[in-house]
Amino acid sequence: MKNKYSIFSLIKNAFSQHENWKQAWGDPEPKKEYEAVIVGGGGHGLATAYYLAKKHNMKNIAVLEKGWIGGGNTGRNTTIIRSNYLWDASAGLYDHALKIWENLSQELNYNIMFSQRGVMNLAHNLQDVRDLKRRTHANRLNGIDAVWLDTKQVKEFCPIINISQDIRYPVLGGTLQRRAGTARHDAVAWGYARGADAMGVDIIQNCEVKGIKRNGDHVEGLDTTKGFIKTKKIGVVAAGHSSVIANMAGLKLPLESKPLQALVSEPVKPIIDTVVMSNAVHAYVSQSDKGELVIGAGTDAYISYTQRGSHDVVEGTLKAILELYPIFSRMKMLRQWGGIVDICPDASPIISKTNIKGLYFNCGWGTGGFKATPGSGDLFAHTIANDEPHKLNAAFNLNRFVSGDLVDEHGAAAVAH
Amino acid sequence: MFVINCPYCGERDQSEFSCGGEAHIVRPKQPTELSDDEWAEYLFMRKNIKGVQFERWNHAHGCRKWFNMVRDTSNDKIHAVYKMGEKPPVI
What we know:
heterodimer, A: 417 residues, alpha/beta, B: 91 residues, two-stranded antiparallel sheet, 1 helix, 9% helix
């Protein structure tokens, strides 16, 4: 890797006022032809390119990004990482990712600030209690660390939480996954970009895909704002815009794109050292290293590509946050934004071949794709390189909507989708 | 967030409505003869258009009636609202 980051390189560069650091990745013009092209330069796309180069020896590849890398949902999410999903297929997928997260900073030689601060999911009614206990048992059978906490233990783990039984949605307990936590979202994109670039991957920004050229049942290349690029393999990782790309190839996907909102408060001193999520009231909160509360809200209930989101959704989330954490009542919110998420009918992703040869889709992550970034890239790279899914993503094929073998995580996962 | 002109109640806040997704998906006339592929197409596959889209809405916290709407999903601008059964306007 050019320019390895270490304490020594930091000291060395200090002597030259940090003016001689090399660029972490290049800014190449697209070549005429690539072995494979990844559409979408977010975390998942860059990770896919990284693992294609690293594990499958495909170096002549490009990542096309219509804006700047990590400028889409990678830079717009609440950075929560966990693997406490109910079904075996999901548990396998998300825990695969979590295991990669645990060594990712070392592997990439890039500090992604992975922090295993624990993720707690609250139960507010008896059905929540039954569902979450069931999920805890399922997790443990799959080797995923999960424990059930009663109300008192919830309070001990997160002292600022309001456990009064007189509130509208009282806390009746919760689950805790200690290996779960957060990571610095931008650093994930940048770390993978740097790693992929070092192995010869072309990362081409400001390059929007305008069309996919098909010859019968296989792909031949892409029309882009930087001209035609020839390739036999196209991996689409375009999140909320997956359907837009699919329509270019004459394909329909089982997706609906909706704005998902998040917001951050003004920065304050450390007050909450974990991540707390609540399915029933749809509010989740953690605190960034800068001190801002990072709050996740729900999706708008209609298709939109506006990257805004409705005010009433934020209002509902903040009402729940204030009931659970009265201490935040005078906090001022600093920023609010929306990202466009592609939601599958079964709230599980699609990492799959299509009936068009050479066209692969990694989409449908809905409201919770960030946590899967490394695993998603690894498995999608495997699928593209071998033209066959890995056993961990075999269940997440596009054909499940025909066969009916859905991975129904709707409401079964830790948070409402 | 936007204002919707309900064909029965007039202008109301979008939060009073719920969206029923893509409009004019015809229910299969002979369901027993449908293949798995055709069922998947009917049940799950959606155009999910970025741009002008025809969709169904329900005034859930109002008259509770269903109607159709033409909306640009790239900017949430509403082009037309029309009742169920009426011919979709040409946009």
